[in-house]
Design a protein that fits this description.
The complex is a heterodimer. By secondary structure, chain A is α+β, with helices and mostly antiparallel strands. Helix content of chain A is 14%, strand content 32%. Classes of the chains: A alpha+beta, B alpha+beta.
Amino acid sequence: MTELVVLQPGWQSTIQDAGRSGYFRQGLSEGGALDEHAFRWANKLLNNEPNAACIEILLGKFEAEFKANAVIAITGADMEASINGEVLRNWRTHSVQQGDVIRFGQARSGLRTYLGIAGGWQTPRQFGSRTVVMREKLGGLDGGPLKQGDRLAFQPRNSPALRVVPEALRPDYQAPLTVYVMPGYQYEQFSVIARRTFETAEYIVSNDISRMGYKLTGPPVSADTRKLASEGIAYGAIQIPPDGQPIILLKDRQTIGGYPKIGCVASLDCARLSQRSPGSPIRFEFTDVDRVQAERRLFDRFFNHSYWVDDSRQIAWP
Amino acid sequence: MRVHAVSEQAVQVEFGRDIDEALIPVIARAVEAIRAELGAVVIDLIPSYTTLLCFYDYNQVDSQWMVREIARILSAIDTDESGSIAIDGRLVEIPVWYDLSVGYDLDALAQQKSLTIAEIVQLHSARDYQVFAIGFNPGFGFLGALDDRLVTPRHSTPRRRVPQGSVGIADAQTAVYPMASPGGWNIIGRTPRVMFDSSGLAGQAALLNVGDRVRFVPISRSEFIERGGQLDD
């Protein structure tokens, strides 16, 4: 075992895996990588287990030194990463040497970058996961974001297999985003006009965004009921507080809440949303659960069953 | 009763519209039955006041199958034993030191309600409460219902930090803060009991489960300290 030493933690860099499963009942958030697409690619590139922990770097300015040779992958937002001043391309693996210093600049497109390492970052597990949920002070090294001087353990590797995510499969985080919404929860309690407004208007990502949720601004919509008995909150639930501005609840959300919800955003669209910065336009489109489920199953099947062939630059399905 | 899909990962059951103590054992029974019959596909369940949210593995079954199966299981519970369902939750005793030094709102509450502090303590500890829901923070149990004479709205501006173990009341509910956090409940005392064990070693880290009953037992300062209670600095 060797270590990565954090020189600059940046805005907010946290250890994230696929999150905690099975603890909602006790009031724990699931947590986990916000952009499941970029996160799964980081581990796919490294042939890691799908749940291996990555560093989720928000906005950039992260800097660290490798105490041994390693193979890493960089996916997600482009933050102009470099090693000892030499540019590292995004969406691929890189070999690094003992003593190398990796630096991330500022996000140019997207908000979150995933820094994965062969074998995954070896921080302790709490409740079955390495994920940091800051509000609960759980996971990572001390329940918080990385700090200067933190040391993250990893297994040294020398195999320099170079793998690249095919160009066509890399997302454009600056493209306008339409998210699928499954009507549910209090959908019936929103008037026909409110639903229509919600589906036709353009909403804008506000400055009020975090791992708990994204608040959007746009034409207000409101339900007939203002408050209801607190109920369990699913991933992507769209909560409408009294001001009528939607909040999409993400991985670090609280487990129960009492605001009316017009529906839920598809999980894969939540991942896309998590790369959108304040000011980005978002549209909603109602669809049915079956369609979203089919799309999500394809995503899972791809990441669980595809494999690298020959020169490692091609990916194939069984 | 209504069962419907809320997302590609979860199905919700609505047992009623209004908060009702009689729903708690029904929901607790539903949790047990769904776990027992669908344990292989159910990932987690969030019971709350009037609802149950059920997360399942969408790679094994689809939404329509889940809705149908849950409806079938619930209809079996519904007709069971002529509709009378026994409360089988545990009784959990929580010792509380009710004192002005840790019960920051005791004095104001006494004045506002024209009660003595002893009367507040008596009213709060006289009855058993039901655990309606767990949430807000890990292990935070929403307990009810309070005696009408204690019903008080929460503070309009929450405190920045409410210490671990603080016992508070808000509207017709009472609760213990399992960890220090911001909070707007009226604080009347503190417990030395660990409400949430964040070591994460045990599967069951939260002391309370939905369906349990809770009884608050007044203790003295020395007992509070003896049992590991923390005073303010």
